[in-house]
Design goal:
The complex is a heterodimer of chains A (543) and B (267). With 543 residues, chain A is mainly β. Chain A contains 2 helices and 38 strands. The longest helix of chain A is centred in the N-terminal third of the chain and has 10 residues. Chain A is globular, with a radius of gyration of 22 Å. The N and C termini of chain A lie close together (12 Å). With 267 residues, chain B is of the alpha+beta class. In chain B, the strands form 2 sheets. A 5-stranded antiparallel β-sheet of chain B has the order 6-5-4-3-7, with no helix packed on it. Chain B is globular and about 70 Å long. Classes of the chains: A mainly beta (543), B alpha+beta (267). The interface between A and B is large, with 55 and 40 residues.
Chain lengths: 543, 267
C-alpha cells in the first residue's frame, strides 16, 4: 500500500494515542473528559449530556456532514458508539464490532460473529446497541446469547462466555456496562417466557461472578406475587443498559414486562420484580431496593427505559434522585439511595390510570385490560417512550424525552408455554394513522411539559443535550436536527435519507466537536466546517 | 425451566405435540398444495398460530405495529406461494424469525395460508357480482380519471392493475362505500395553509419533520417548509375519492367488486 506523504504525520499520532488505556477511574470520571464518549450513555448517570460547547446555538446552523459509514449486515442499526483514544467503536447487526477512525470515518477492523441459521429473535429485531470498554478490552453481547471480550486494539477475541441459551429465546442486544473489574449484562427474551436476570462477569476471564434474577423462584421473597408456578416463565427481561452511582455503590437496572405479556390471568399478583427498577450491590448482586412502576402489567409496558441519575431540589431539599420517563406514560422521581417514591406525573396521553398514589402505585381505571375483542388504551404497546435514551441537562434542569403519542387496541388470547416460541397471550392493533411523536422537554423536578417539538410519527430516536445549549435528535422520516435546549426552536436539520433509530453522541476529533447518529443503514458524523486548509490533507499527488 | 437443545428439541416437540411420529406426520401432509385450497379449519388453525407467533410484530389484524404491515400492495418476499411458505418456515435472516421447525409442515402451511388470506382474501370465495358488468360500470363511472389500470388512466389514486391480488372483496367493497375507512399511505388528505398564499387541499405525497409535499386535485405537487405554514391539517378518515352513492343499485357495487377482484395484473 502506498501511503501519500501528507498523511504520514497523522498516522504516527494515532499510533501513539493508542497506547493509552481506559481504566475504571476514567469511566467514573467520564464527565471530566467530554472529548471522549466512554459509556453507552456517555456517563454512568445515564444523562446523555455533554459539556462540549464548540457547537452551540450561535453556529449550529453551519453544521455539516463530516463523513458517513455504511454498515454491511442485514438488520436494524441501533448502535451507540464508544469514542476514546482516537477510535470509535460501533456495532453493526447482527453482532459485528467495528473500529473506525473518527477523523475520516474509515473502518480499521471488524469482529464479525456468524449467527446460527436457526437464530431465534422473539420480540425484537436483529440488533445490537453497542459495546463497553474497560482497560484494553471491548465487551459485546451477541444475538445468540454470548458475552464476548475483544482486544480494543485489534479486535482479536480474548474470551467468550454463554450468558443464556438462544434456543429458549435468550439474546443479548444491549450494550454491556463495565464497572471496576467486572462487566454487567442484561438479557432479552421477554416475549419468549424466559426468567430474567442481571449478570456480572469477571472482566479478565469471563467467569460469572453473580446472577440476580428479576423474578423470584419458589421459596424466595416476592414469589407470592406470582400465582402458582407462573414465575417460571415470568420474563422481566433486562434488555437495556443500567445506570451506576459510584458514591452510593448502587447499580440501577430497569426490568421488562411479565410473561405472558397480555394475558395476566395466568399470573395473578403484582409479578415482582417485573416492570420495575431494581437497585443492586455491584459486588454481590444483592438487591438493595426495588420500585415497581406497573404492578401486574398487562400492556407490555417494560420499565427498561434509561434510569437517569440527577440531583434535584425537591421541596427545598437537594435530593439524590433517579428519574425516568416510563413506557406507561408517567414520569417518576425516586430517591436513589432508598427507592423512596417522591413524585410522578403523566407526560403523554394515557387512559389507564387516574393517577399515581402517595406510595407510587397507579390508581387504575377499571376496564383497561386487554380483551378478546380488543380494548383501546393509550399508550400503545410500544409505550409513550421506549428504549431510545432521554437526556438530562443540569444546565437547563430539563429532562428531554422522545415521545410516542399513540393508542392501541389490546387483545388477550389463550396462551401456553412452548420453549423457543413466543409466549405473549395476545397482541395489539396500533392506531398508527392518528399517531404522532415529539421531543418533549420536562421540568425534571415535576415532569411538567416546558416545550414540545412535534414529529410526524412516534419517535424511535434518542436525545442528546449539550452545554452548547442544544438538543439533538432524529425522526423516522430521516431528519437529524438540533433544537434550542431552552425553547425547543429548531436551529438546524439535515435529511439523512433513512429512519433515525439510535442515540446521538458527541465527542472531539483533533479539536473539532462531532455529533454522530446512526440512521438507515449508516452512521453519520457532523461537524462545523473546517478552517481553510484543514480539509482533506492535500494536495495528494497522483503516483 | 426446560432448556431446549437446539433444533432436535423443536422437532421432538412438534412430533410430540401432534401425537404422531415426525416422519409419519411429514409424509402424511402435502405442503405443495396451493395455499388458496385452505379450508375453514386450516385457516382457523393458521389464525391460532398467527396470533401466537406473528401478531406480536405484525398486529392482530396484520396491519403492523413493531413490524411492518402485511396489508400492503405487494409482499416483496412472499409474492407467491413458495415465497410465503419460505418466509413463514425460515423467516428472514436477521430480520424475522421463522418457526418452521417448531410448527412442522402442516402448521407452517396453515399459517402461510392464513397470512395469504388476510392480505389478498381467499380466491375461492364465490362473489355475488358480475365481473363483466363491473367492467362496464368502471368505464361508465370514469374511475380511470383517477386510477391507472393496465397502463391506462390518470395516476391520482392507487394503481388498480393487480388490486384483486392485493385486496380481498370485503376490503374492496368497503373502499367503494366508505373510501375514507382505510386510506393507503401516500393518499392521506391534508390542507396546507401558507401564511401569504391560498390554502391547498390534496393528498400528502410525503412528509418529514420540516417538509411536506401535497398533490392538488389537478396533479401538481406543492412543496412547503412546514415552519412557514400557518397550519397543516390532516383529515382523519377522509379520502378524495367520492363514495359510491347509495342512489345506485346495490348490485352495481357487487359487480364492481367482482371486476376489481378479477384484476390480478398482467405479470
Amino acid at each position: 500500500m502506498k501511503q501519500p506523504m501528507a498523511l504520514a504525520a497523522a498516522v504516527v499520532a494515532l499510533g501513539t494515542a493508542l497506547a493509552a488505556q481506559v481504566p475504571y477511574s476514567r469511566l467514573v470520571n467520564a464527565s471530566k473528559e467530554p472529548g471522549n464518549w466512554l459509556t453507552y450513555n456517555g456517563t454512568y448517570d445515564g444523562r446523555r449530556h455533554s459539556t462540549l460547547s464548540q457547537i452551540n446555538t450561535s453556529n449550529v446552523a453551519q453544521l455539516q456532514p463530516a463523513w458517513v459509514y455504511q454498515v454491511r449486515g442485514d438488520g436494524q442499526v441501533e448502535t451507540s458508539p464508544i469514542v476514546v483514544n482516537g477510535r470509535m467503536y460501533i456495532t453493526e447487526p447482527p453482532t459485528t464490532v467495528t473500529a473506525l477512525d473518527p477523523r475520516s470515518g474509515r473502518s480499521l477492523w471488524s469482529y464479525v460473529r456468524p449467527m446460527p441459521s436457526d437464530l431465534r429473535l422473539i420480540g425484537f429485531p436483529a440488533t445490537n446497541r453497542g459495546v463497553a470498554i474497560l482497560d484494553d478490552m471491548l465487551y459485546v453481547g451477541s444475538l445468540d446469547g454470548y458475552l464476548i471480550a475483544l482486544d480494543a486494539e485489534t479486535g482479536a477475541k480474548r474470551w467468550e462466555t454463554l450468558v443464556a441459551d438462544n434456543g429458549t429465546g435468550h439474546s443479548v442486544t444491549m450494550a454491556p456496562l463495565a464497572l471496576d473489574g467486572k462487566v454487567i449484562v442484561g438479557i432479552s427474551g421477554g416475549e419468549a417466557g424466559i426468567r430474567g436476570f442481571v449478570d456480572a462477569y469477571d472482566a479478565k476471564s469471563g467467569k460469572l461472578l453473580w446472577r440476580t434474577h428479576t423474578v423470584p423462584a419458589a421459596g424466595e421473597p416476592g414469589v407470592e406475587t406470582w400465582a402458582g408456578d407462573s414465575w417460571k416463565n415470568g420474563a422481566g427481561a433486562t434488555w437495556l443498559t443500567g445506570s451506576y452511582d459510584p458514591e452510593l455503590k448502587l447499580l440501577y437496572w430497569g426490568t421488562g414486562n411479565p410473561g405472558p405479556d397480555w394475558n395476566g390471568d395466568v399470573r395473578l399478583g403484582d409479578n415482582l420484580y417485573t416492570s420495575s427498577v431494581v437497585a443492586l450491590d455491584p459486588d454481590t448482586g444483592k438487591m438493595r431496593w426495588h420500585f415497581q412502576y406497573t404492578p401486574h402489567d398487562t400492556h407490555d409496558w417494560d420499565a427498561n427505559q434509561i434510569q437517569v441519575l440527577a440531583d434535584l431540589q425537591i421541596n427545598g431539599r437537594l435530593r439524590k434522585t433517579l428519574v425516568t420517563a416510563n413506557r406507561n406514560a408517567f414520569y417518576y422521581v425516586l430517591d436513589r439511595a432508598t427507592g423512596e417514591f417522591l413524585h410522578a406525573a403523566p407526560y403523554a396521553k394515557q387512559t389507564w390510570a387516574k393517577g399515581i398514589d402517595a406510595k407510587g402505585r397507579p390508581e387504575l381505571i377499571p376496564g383497561k385490560e386487554p380483551t378478546e375483542e380488543g380494548n383501546l388504551v393509550y399508550p400503545s404497546l410500544q409505550g409513550s417512550t421506549n428504549w431510545p435514551s432521554p437526556s438530562f441537562s443540569p444546565q437547563t434542569g430539563l429532562f428531554y424525552v422522545p415521545v410516542r403519542e399513540m393508542g392501541s387496541y389490546y387483545y388477550k388470547t389463550e396462551v401456553e408455554y412452548e420453549a423457543g416460541l413466543p409466549f405473549t397471550g395476545g397482541g395489539e392493533r396500533a392506531l398508527a394513522d392518528e399517531a404522532w411523536g415529539a421531543v418533549r422537554a420536562l421540568d425534571a423536578r415535576t415532569g411538567a411539559t416546558v416545550w414540545d417539538f412535534k414529529l410526524p410519527s412516534p419517535s424511535w430516536s434518542g436525545v442528546l443535550s449539550t452545554a452548547g445549549g442544544l438538543v439533538f435528535s432524529g425522526s423516522n422520516e430521516g431528519n437529524v436536527y438540533a433544537l434550542d435546549a431552552k425553547t425547543g426552536a429548531a436551529l438546524w436539520q439535515f435529511q439523512v435519507g433513512g429512519n433515525v433509530r439510535s442515540n446521538p453522541a458527541t465527542f472531539m476529533v483533533e479539536g473539532r466537536q462531532h455529533v454522530s447518529v446512526a440512521a438507515g443503514r449508516a452512521l453519520f458524523a457532523f461537524a462545523l466546517p473546517e478552517a481553510a486548509g484543514r480539509g482533506t490533507p492535500s494536495p495528494i499527488a497522483p503516483k | 425451566m426446560a432448556i431446549g437443545h437446539g433444533a432436535r428439541a423443536w422437532l421432538l416437540a412438534a412430533a410430540l405435540g401432534s401425537g404422531l411420529p415426525l416422519i409419519a406426520q411429514a409424509q402424511a401432509f402435502d405442503a405443495s398444495r396451493p395455499l388458496r385450497d385452505a379450508d375453514a379449519s386450516d385457516l382457523a388453525a393458521g389464525r391460532r398460530a398467527y396470533v401466537a407467533q406473528c401478531a406480536l410484530c405484525h398486529g392482530m389484524d396484520g396491519s403492523g405495529g413493531y413490524g411492518p404491515s402485511l396489508l400492503v400492495a405487494v409482499l416483496a418476499r412472499a409474492s407467491d406461494d413458495a415465497g410465503m411458505l419460505r418466509v413463514v418456515d425460515q423467516g428472514i435472516p436477521n430480520l424475522m424469525p421463522g418457526y418452521g421447525r417448531a410448527n412442522g409442515p402442516r402448521r407452517t402451511w396453515q399459517l402461510a395460508a392464513y397470512v395469504r388470506s388476510i392480505t389478498a382474501g381467499s380466491a375461492s370465495v364465490v362473489l355475488a357480482g358480475d365481473s363483466a358488468r363491473g367492467k362496464a360500470i368502471y368505464q361508465e363511472r370514469g374511475c380511470g380519471s383517477c386510477h391507472v389500470l393496465d397502463g391506462a388512466g390518470r395516476a391520482y389514486g392507487p394503481d388498480l392493475s393487480s388490486i384483486g391480488a392485493q385486496r380481498g372483496p370485503a376490503y374492496l367493497k368497503e373502499a367503494l362505500l366508505k373510501p375514507g375507512a382505510r386510506v393507503p399511505d401516500g393518499h392521506v388528505v391534508v390542507t396546507a395553509k401558507p401564511k401569504d398564499a391560498r390554502s391547498i387541499r390534496g393528498v400528502r405525497v410525503a412528509e418529514d419533520v420540516f417538509w411536506v409535499y401535497v398533490r392538488d386535485p389537478g396533479g401538481t405537487i406543492h412543496r412547503y417548509w412546514k415552519p412557514d405554514l400557518e397550519a397543516l391539517e390532516r383529515e382523519a378518515g377522509a379520502s378524495l375519492m367520492p363514495a359510491y352513492g347509495a342512489e345506485r343499485r346495490a348490485t352495481e357495487v357487487d359487480d364492481l367488486v367482482a371486476y376489481l377482484a378479477s384484476l390480478r395484473g398482467a405479470r
